[in-house]
Write a structure and sequence with these properties.
The protein has about 210 residues and is an all-alpha fold. The protein has one domain. It is about 85% helix and about 0% strand. Keywords: Cell membrane, Membrane, Transmembrane, Transmembrane helix.
């Protein structure tokens, strides 16, 4: 039963990570600019954040969900500001300067993990996404017990990690074909894409929450 439970969790984690939103664009950009290890650790940071939200959803920590529901507008605004600022920073980044910093040893893989973890954590709507996936795939049944729930949560992290490993591996194959001029435009496109995705997602949420009848 435990293997089946683990696979259920992996399916949820993999599926929840598939949509290539702002974080996905950031991880692709880091893989192309800084290498596969940078992208992979960034992806693992996102997977860890998703796991925390899966824990909240899976164990029904209602007081946290209630707080987030009450403060969702301000939390969303904070996330929009941070991610939009990130998009602007990437858009304005000079790849030559970034490569010089890497050669000087100023690039930190730890910061890649931590920054993506915190950025992904700034999107509390992920809790409701996991609730929907748990319900849709019919996991977290009452008979599983504590051990079963923990196995599912472990599977969520593993499933998300598998997705980011696959994505960064595929993107890493094209890194050798990227010159500075292409990297310059990749930064522009990635930065602009992050801004557009973040603003569009926020506006869609506002319209659905406050104007949809």
């Amino acid at each position: 039963m435990y293997w089946s439970t683990l696979l259920d969790g992996m399916l949820v984690g993999f599926s929840a990570s598939l949509p290539l939103g702002p974080i996905g664009v950031l991880i692709v950009q880091r893989t192309l600019q800084n290498g596969r290890t940078s992208g992979l650790l960034s992806g693992f940071g996102a997977a860890m954040s998703d796991t925390i939200y899966a824990i909240i959803a899976g164990f029904s920590l209602s007081y946290i969900v209630t707080f987030i529901e009450a403060q969702i507008l301000w939390i969303q605004l904070g996330g929009v500001i941070v991610l939009t600022g990130l998009g602007v920073k990437i858009f304005r980044t000079n790849p030559v300067t970034q490569l010089r910093k890497q050669k000087a040893g100023k690039h930190s893989l730890v910061s890649d993990f931590v920054s993506t973890f915190l950025l992904t954590l700034s999107n509390p709507l992920a809790i409701f996404l996991f609730i929907a996936f748990f319900a849709g795939f019919r996991v977290l049944k009452s008979e599983y017990g504590l051990i079963g729930h923990l196995i599912i949560i472990s599977g969520v992290f593993m499933g998300a990690a598998v997705w980011w490993t696959l994505l960064t591996s595929v993107v890493g194959l094209f890194r050798s074909k990227i010159n500075l001029r292409r990297l310059f435009w990749i930064n522009k496109i990635a930065g602009l894409a992050i801004i557009v995705l973040v603003v569009a997602a926020f506006l869609f949420w506002v319209i659905r929450e406050y104007f949809y009848v």
